[in-house]
């Protein structure tokens, strides 16, 4: 009887260990270009976000706003065909100032994640 209990306990531990990566499998921002909080000398021609997993383009967006809250980038965010963990949006000619990048993406699990950060153009 004790042997069966030990086997069942071990099976439960293994099942929990295997299921935990699936439960935490949401898209997470790994890096950005420009970097969060950066001050750049030249205005970027695009904003690129790199995530820890493939991004679903249809459910993803990037909005770039200036310090007054005006939308600076109006183009559609596109997933990089060579690396589907990267999503980009073209930026217009940006003036000096602080800009906010707001993003919303859906990873392969379908869960939507959001975030934001700022960068400054000299």
Kindly describe this structure:
This protein is an alpha+beta fold and 122 residues long. It has a single domain, classed as Immunoglobulin-like (Sandwich). The chain has one helix and nine strands, in the order αβββββββββ. The strands form two sheets. A five-stranded mixed beta sheet has the order 2-9-8-4-5, with no helix packed on it. Strands 1-3-7-6 form a four-stranded antiparallel beta sheet, with no helix packed on it. The protein is elongated and about 40 Å long. The termini are far apart. About 16% of the residues have low confidence.
Short description:
The chain has one helix at residues 2-23; strands at residues 29-33, 39-40, 46-51, 61-65, 71-73, 78-79, 86-90, 97-106, 112-121.
Oligomer: single chain
Gyration radius over CA: 20 Å
- Shape category: elongated
Strand tally is 9
Return the structural class: alpha+beta
Keywords:
single chain; 122 residues; alpha+beta; Immunoglobulin-like; 5-stranded mixed beta sheet; 4-stranded antiparallel beta sheet; 1 helix; 18% helix; elongated
Give the topology.
Elements: H1 2-23, E1 29-33, E2 39-40, E3 46-51, E4 61-65, E5 71-73, E6 78-79, E7 86-90, E8 97-106, E9 112-121
Parallel strand pairs: 2-9
Antiparallel strand pairs: 1-3, 3-7, 4-5, 4-8, 6-7, 8-9
Domain CopC: 26-121
Family: Belongs to the CopC family.
InterPro entries: CopC-like, CopC/D, CopC_dom, Cu-Rt/internalin_Ig-like, Ig_E-set
């Amino acid at each position: 009887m004790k042997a069966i209990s030990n086997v069942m306990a071990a099976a439960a531990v293994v099942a929990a260990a295997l299921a935990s990566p699936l439960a935490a499998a949401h898209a997470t921002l790994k890096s950005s270009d420009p970097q969060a909080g950066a001050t750049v000398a030249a205005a970027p021609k695009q904003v690129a976000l790199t995530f820890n997993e493939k991004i679903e383009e249809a459910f993803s967006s990037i909005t770039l706003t200036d310090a007054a809250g005006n939308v600076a980038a109006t183009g559609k965010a596109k997933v990089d065909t060579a690396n589907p963990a990267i999503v980009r949006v073209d930026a217009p000619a940006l003036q000096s100032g602080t800009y906010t990048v707001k993003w919303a993406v859906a990873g392969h699990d379908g869960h939507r994640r959001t975030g934001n950060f700022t960068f400054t153009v000299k």
